[in-house]
Design goal:
The structure is a homodimer. By secondary structure, chain A is mainly beta. Chain A has four helices and 14 strands. In chain A, strand 8 and strand 9 form a beta hairpin. Chains A and B meet through strand 12 and helix 4 of A and strand 12 and helix 4 of B.
Chain lengths: 187, 187
């Protein structure tokens, strides 16, 4: 099966109370455009993330709000910011790296930063058809002059997920992958 | 065999005449520190590379001078600069992307820019011991939470080469590889 690849830039998920702290009381995030997973969207809002060494501006907020605020950066950002954000499955918010989010009304500081581990989204039925299941670790192959076999791809199967292989920009560039490219499951 | 990994940032190789155009008549590059391959060194000098959309400062010059000027950037730089530098084996200087190098005396403009294809340096004897030869395309594996099998690794075997697997920062970050890590040849 050829699996569409979704490439993420660094981004931020915010809790409802952190939206108010950063953007002001009663503030509502505005939809900029839909992204691959149903109900998820890039917001018009961006924030600045900061650590004493460096800051990164224009980091996109992804909505809707979540229970817990989470900043997904890239390994290269760890070097730029002098942070040590761990590589984790998105949503696993234990022991994240401390970071400050500033913009435009207030700022928040806490253990928000992680690097997302590459993962596959699919429905339970698609997982069954591929002979895999939620929680599995699989290998996905991409072709080309920078062909790579991505190992340790976490399977996240749930009925409201859309099929995609989720990597960040550094992983995409390392593999010469562009939006619209596909990966293949190998056993 | 465990092969040491060498991680390159973007950098510039200059011809003797381009050194004079950029830094001035009779200018000699200064050694900053040795790098993995014998006789090669990072220079004290850096340059700015530019394209109408963007510029990147502090790009390290790597010495000694070469017959042909060559700018090695990363895929992410292609997006930032709006260039389309091809992925090629370093030294294959046909059909490179046009780019401007400015700093500090003069500037040059020409088809200098490429993205380096991942490659293995080794001596002819090391290649024989590994059962490979110059010009082969091999697969090298790295471990960890971002474990990857790098395919299409070009073998460059020559008696004055030091053993290393040469990737750029994006490839290293995508694979969770740090300086000092090693890769393994797989067949």
């Amino acid at each position: 099966m050829r699996i569409p690849i979704w490439i993420s830039n660094r981004h931020v998920h915010l809790s409802p109370s952190d939206v108010e702290k950063i953007f002001g009381k009663w503030y509502q995030l505005k939809v900029f455009k839909d992204i691959s997973q149903p109900g998820q969207y890039a917001c018009e809002e961006t924030v600045t993330i900061e650590w004493p060494k460096w800051k990164i501006e224009h980091v996109r907020v992804v909505g809707p709000t979540r229970k817990t605020t989470q900043v997904e950066i890239m390994v290269g950002d760890n070097f730029a910011l002098w942070t040590n954000a761990p590589i984790k499955i998105s949503g696993d918010v234990d022991n994240l790296e401390y970071i400050k989010i500033i913009w435009p009304v207030g700022d928040i500081y806490g253990p928000f930063a992680m690097v997302s581990q590459r993962h596959l989204h699919c429905t339970v039925q698609e997982a069954q058809e591929m002979g895999i299941k939620n929680g599995d670790s699989i290998q996905l192959h991409v072709w080309g002059i920078r062909a790579v076999m991505f190992e340790n791809v976490a399977v996240r199967a749930k009925d409201d997920y859309a099929l995609d292989f989720h990597i960040d920009i550094e992983e995409a560039n390392a593999a010469g992958v562009k939006p619209g490219d596909r990966a293949e499951l190998t056993k």
